[in-house]
């Protein structure tokens, strides 16, 4: 049986994503108890994180309005070079998506986080200028399949014969490989008569009229053209691999595609992937992305539930990026944009997430903690290692206290800049968004050529307004941190930006972002409760284990003329620059995914084949004297971090 993975056809490129994390110390908690239930049974166990069976099942399958493909298309779609089903269990597991057995909530046995969205009314006829035949054939009114939060924020680890499910933890999924593979599979279906015949036989009823086959082919071509447009906008030689995704890049490029202009000021490839964030305690944080683009700021009641408007716009932006249909044709966000957004579901998902507790180290499955080492590690955390300065303490069951998350400017954290930098610099022709207020009713007026993030905010607010007229009275000025700065002129400097990198555009972009001050140009430090379950580390997933995070890196963002591009002059040990990702085998000693696991699916590299550091894959940063730590101190710190 063939498993399709598009990046096995490519040269394995290297990525860097850093998971900045935050947390303070607490007394050693009691061992977490595993809960066996109808979802987690046999060799699959769930940690007690405050959710019931019913809540888990709902989280895994509820639609936010994401519409990737008609459901019957998805069930019939084959991988390019065989008759294996693309959405079949084997292929989806190879791409890192978790199995979700067929049930009442998931009758088709779709992978975890793949949700069915169905609106049989005329309201579903969206984007008919892009999909005219699809609308005419009423395919828009059929059931569609898309993703929800759970696909990217649910994890499993394995040790011996035990599998442990962790809700809200980073997935090991390869989104880039998945979405590119959908396009390649659609194209193969259109190009191969036998494939198309099998596809049509599964999608059409035996009584379908002869014209239905021709219509299906036209609809297929429409989907291919749309997916190819997005593919070209996002195209990059940088392979994200498993456990990372340039979500902001995908979302911003989607906005340029629905703006009515389709024109970018300069190429904006999705080449700054990040580790999927862990999402427990999200409502308790001020900032709700790795960088400073969005924040929680205004709580109000909607559909009888309390929600935060900043979170609502953040989630709306996510759904826009992952396949929601949206129209900006009326050119006025305050009148509302028609979309497939499921606003009530999104509010309820956010409320459920607010009940999620962070995972506690399960000593009945993983080796018990060393209490003496934990105590020594806590002293180091609060003292010599200086971790507590940025990472406040939050208990594993605390769902109320402010997280006290902090933003650290790029120049200070010295990590890979491009998650923040790409979002800051992304500009495009505004099209339908031109001359509108950024926040629909207030804010900056969007110019003919402007920052794409302003258009994203306008699109998100307009999508919400279309479903909630009561939103009209809200003030949106502080919703997103909208930078007004333009490009600075380059000045002569003895500093080299991205030493060792040959790409001058990337070096120039790094200089801009490292010499300007803006809320977006920073990364978040948050409490570290549950950090043991969130590998790989740093915001871009460029460090495999907690132990490795306590080592210095060899690469750096800057160097002065004539000095080596090294963070530390020590002889090592250094953070690894090559490691495997995508596996579930867990290393309880170094704390991360085992490098001896047989199911490694992708190899992450900090450098290319010529030894040059890869922008987006830098594993530098989060170094506050790492080289001065002894081996014993590193082990004590790791033991303490397990206990949070």
Please provide a written account of the structure.
The chain starts with 16 loop residues before the first strand and ends with a helix. It is built from 17 helices and 23 strands. Helices cover 28% and strands 12% of the residues. The protein has helices at residues 53-61, 71-76, 89-94, 132-136, 175-191, 193-203, 210-234, 247-258, 309-321, 343-353, 371-382, 410-413, 418-425, 452-465, 504-515, 546-549, 631-643, and strands at residues 17-19, 34-35, 44-47, 69-70, 114-118, 143-147, 154-159, 162-167, 244-245, 274-275, 299-302, 305-308, 406-409, 427-429, 449-451, 495-497, 522-525, 538-540, 558-560, 578-581, 586-587, 592-593, 602-605. By secondary structure, it is an alpha+beta fold. Strands 2-3-8-7 form a 4-stranded mixed β-sheet, with no helix packed on it. Strands 4-6-5 form a 3-stranded antiparallel β-sheet. Residues 7-33, 475-488 and 561-569 have low confidence and may be disordered.
SSE diagram, text form:
Layout: E1 17-19, E2 34-35, E3 44-47, H1 53-61, E4 69-70, H2 71-76, H3 89-94, E5 114-118, H4 132-136, E6 143-147, E7 154-159, E8 162-167, H5 175-191, H6 193-203, H7 210-234, E9 244-245, H8 247-258, E10 274-275, E11 299-302, E12 305-308, H9 309-321, H10 343-353, H11 371-382, E13 406-409, H12 410-413, H13 418-425, E14 427-429, E15 449-451, H14 452-465, E16 495-497, H15 504-515, E17 522-525, E18 538-540, H16 546-549, E19 558-560, E20 578-581, E21 586-587, E22 592-593, E23 602-605, H17 631-643
Parallel strand pairs: 3-8
Antiparallel strand pairs: 1-18, 2-3, 4-6, 5-6, 7-8, 9-10, 11-12, 13-17, 14-15, 16-19, 20-23, 21-22
